[in-house]
Amino acid sequence: MRNTIPPxxxxxxxxxxxxxxCDVAGIRVGHRSLRGTGEATGVTAILxxxxxLYRRPVPAGAAVLNGFGKSAGLxxxxxxxEIETPILLTNTFGVPACATALIRHAIATNPxxxxxxxxxxxxxxxxxxxxxxxxxxxxxxxADALAAIAAAAEGFEQGTVGAGSGMRTFGFAGGxxxxxxxxxxxxxxxxxxxxxxxxxxxxxGDLRVFGDRVAxxxxxxxxxxxxxIIVLATDAPLDARQLTRLARRSxxxxxxxxxxxxxxxxxxxxxxxxxxxxxxxxxxDIHPATRLNEARxxxxxxxxxxxxxxxxxxxIWHGAPLPGYDGSRLPSFRETLRKR
Length: 340
Hints:
The protein is of the alpha+beta class. The chain has one domain: L-amino peptidase D-ALA esterase/amidase. 22% of the residues lie in helices and 25% in strands. The strands form four sheets. The protein has a six-stranded mixed β-sheet, with helices on both faces. It has a four-stranded mixed β-sheet with strand order 1-2-5-6. Helix 2 crosses helix 3, helix 4 crosses helix 6 and helix 5 crosses helix 6. The two termini are 24 Å apart. The mean pLDDT is 94.
């Protein structure tokens, strides 16, 4: 997926070998794409590690950049600072089925959930793909969510696949995108940061690449009423508060791309670390942990903004227009560039 955006600018930081969120060791991503008459939707699963997330949750933070959304699990995430299920992305009306699937998935591994053990907090985030997908048909089922989890791997497709199947960005087709950055600290320590976006935002004609307006889709401009879900991951030992700070900075990437975070755009950012994971069955009074020096956060802020910006561009670069339920078709970013 590297170097997919046409020349015209340069990134400041180097990407990892895949240039995806899976450059952070242990992370896997899977899709379940649904196609049919009027149907172009699906589920995308992000697994922070290959073990039992309920037993070994990862430190996490979240930032609600604009709260026009119907996601599940954010309240407990922000309170406890951890993620205890795979992260599922889907369309707005697919949230209940995905949440139920995550509950069943956790119970299958931990049968005492809700009995002798605490309940589980399913984390599902959404964007409205109703411009392309017949969202009233409610095509997403529990089995689709479980299939996305089962398909998780280090290599995955981008663009109009999985949860991104029916999404649009700045008037173009494109939904799921990813990128990564190497983070080199002053003392010589190195870490990896990755981003994955479910991109469904931006007003047609406003897109900017490296600061320049590069293309205008063959579409009538409309107010920004989409959404974007941003997931940031790192192997650096950031605590929940630091991860929340990192998540907030993703708003800068949206602005660089030309978004003003519109009134009906549900923009949510999550960030998690694969470091300092503690087994909940360890009943010790104190769990030792390391933490990043606060003075080194700027390196992660910069890496996060770059990775999110490129992830959105990768989503539309790989977007393949699908026919909408009403017969319409979103324009292709790549084809629009070739025509101009």
